[in-house]
Amino acid sequence: MTTATALDDRTAVVTGASSGIGAAVARELAARGARVALLARRRDRLEALREELGGTAVAADVTDEAAVAAAADEIGPVDIVVNAAGVLVPGFLEGGDTAAWRRQVEVNLLGLLHVSRAFVPGLVAAAGRGRPADLVNVSSVAASQVEPGAAVYAATKAAVSHLSRNLRAELAPRNVRVTSVEPGMVLSELRAGSELALAWEEQMKAAIDPLAAADVAEVVAFVVGRPRHVSLPSLTVSPTRQV
After folding, report:
1. Does the annotation count 153 as an active-site position?
2. What are the tens digits of pLDDT across the range 116-155?
């Protein structure tokens, strides 16, 4: 039976690290010995987490390609990339907020592409030296489900999951593992600022026992901790009562 490999010689960059799943992933990877670089927009929160975990913190908006490239230069090579930055703004097509549509596409999809493009050369280089190398994209069960009132968000996550499959085809021959992690209902700040989303979340809390961000973080750490020859292309993690 294969066993997990230690992370104490690994270096990770985690986007969306100022809160929610991103912050939880950063904490979990650091707890398992990895050096962690934090990437998000909110500098104050990043600095607080950096003081807790050590490592590097760089404030950058993933939708800004130049800022991401500069962040990659500052952080340097890594062998784990976790794309956890995301935004959900619910709304229907009729009367929908087109700026919110654009923001979700830019953060959830284009931001992931910017980060991946900036850091994947380091993953390829690490794999070429015989080291494990991981690109982990946080998608959602919304990628394959109908989500009334969250169609744009669901569409972006469907794109993330399918993009991950295509990136795996591109990178697997060079020994870079690509994984799409698709969480179900998670209590996080993803819906903050939206009364509709918060009301929906309260209804879901009454119906199921949602995941905590730490639950997803443990799955991510499991993925990157596999022996180098073991890949987990796609994982779904969901509350037991969510169907």
Report:
1. yes
2. 999 999 999 999 999 999 999 999 999 999 888 899 999 9
